[in-house]
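Researcher: Please translate sequence to structure tokens.
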Amino acid sequence: MSSLHLSMKLLETGYEESQIQAMDRGQLMTLWAELVVAGKDKPVATGSAVGYDPELEKRRLDFEMQKFEEDRKWREKELQDHRTRYEEEMRMKERELKIQEERAKMSKSLVNKTKVYARPKNQIIGGTGVCCVARR
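Model: Translation complete:
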């Protein structure tokens, strides 16, 4: 293995470049041999390596679930508010209708009373001075 290749392998295992540059080829070979015997000749996993991190994936899924739940609650609240407004409008319309019916009833009643008691003088029955109103 060339010195350059050896240096690259040692860099991959986590040694600093300044440490490696300070060593000669014999020291590099000795260090590499010790790493191979210890089983540390595999590259150190760094945070920049692309891979699957179960903890990160779990946090991401938790976040997505929380976001979905908040959206669901917001939509549910909006629907409830809409229902409440609709029910209030219906109650107001019922009250208005009731008031209109009562006014119509009172108006009709008042019209009937007016018809009965406010007849012209020529419809008064009898000429005795006692006023009687003809009823229908």
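Researcher: Any highlights?
Model: The chain has two domains: 3-38, 52-136.
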